[in-house]
Amino acid sequence: PFDVLIVGGGPAGAAAAVYAARKGIRVGVAAERFGGQTNDTMAIENYISVLETDGPKFALALEAQVRHYDVDIMNLQRADRIVPAPTPGGLVAVHMANGGVLHSRSVIVSTGARWRNVNVPGEAEYKNKGVAYCPHCDGPLFKGKRVAVIGGGNSGIEAAIDLAGIVQHVTVIEFADALKADAVLVNKLKSLANVTIHVNAQTTQITGDGQKVNGISYKDRVSSEIHHVELEGVFVQIGLVPNTEFLKGTLELSKFGEIVVDAKCHTSLPGVFAAGDVTTVPYKQIVIAAGEGSKAALSAFDYLIRQPVD
Length: 310
Ligand code: FAD
Hints:
This is Alkyl hydroperoxide reductase subunit F. It is an enzyme of class 1 (oxidoreductase). With 310 residues, the protein is of the alpha/beta class. Helices cover 22% and strands 29% of the residues. The strands form five sheets. Strands 1, 2, 5, 6, 7, 8 and 19 form a seven-stranded mixed sheet that branches. The structure holds flavin-adenine dinucleotide (FAD).
């Protein structure tokens, strides 16, 4: 059995692996895709001490650092169930989709999250070529340009306010008949001169010139007319979904499906810790996920040294 088994190999899982391995204990990482969401990122310009890198390079560097230590990396492995230890301090079982079962004295869940797609023509084609999901990450890439934000909930309106300070113009496109964000945010948005809001608007297509985005089309759901707006960027803000489907009924989850953790990354199950985008910790960013992964490993180590000797 492992002392620490990490499920998920993104920035949170990689940081947890490095911190745990440096304690000289038995560490394993089971991950579907090492590097996680960073594989899908073009430019990363906000990881402190790294002026600029790209996602695939960053993902390779994560794996190389973990491989530098004596960590058992199990790639292309998907967990589909966690079974709590039968007795306090006993072994937690992680069941894999391929039928295998891994046992560990402690487990760190760092399975991350995924952005919900709008699923219209052009979205996949122009991902990272004008289609973006994270205003903190990619907002500055659109400095002085025109963008749309799809989604009028809190994250969409926060993104629109944020972007309005950087870009030339923001078009907000909301499917429902009103913006759903908090009134204080909606009022702030409406006070901005370079923002246009369309409600009852269904995005139908993200258009491009073959290389990058050049516009967005939406249907007015009242008149059924199709409109087209010329612009350079589209931020899709219709939800971030935590990868916790396999944990329902095992760990306490928030109403958004995030694993509820305390400041030390404890979950509702003793011996099971969680870190990164999969948790209730706010602001889903690489540097934050890495910090949380380090904390989870230190908490797991603290848990292990407090187990009575048998
Ligand atoms: P993830 O990176 O999501 O990693 C999750 C890991 O768990 C992966 O290895 C995955 O394969 C694995 N996994 C999932 N389910 C299972 C399972 N059941 N069993 C086993 N393994 C599983 N942040 C920034 O700070 N700067 C940026 O510039 C930036 N740009 C971004 C651009 C894009 C397009 C996207 C999508 C995100 C961007 N982010 C950026 C956000 C950043 O990538 C995430 O905050 C960060 O990767 C979260 O790390 P994590 O380890 O918590 O999860």
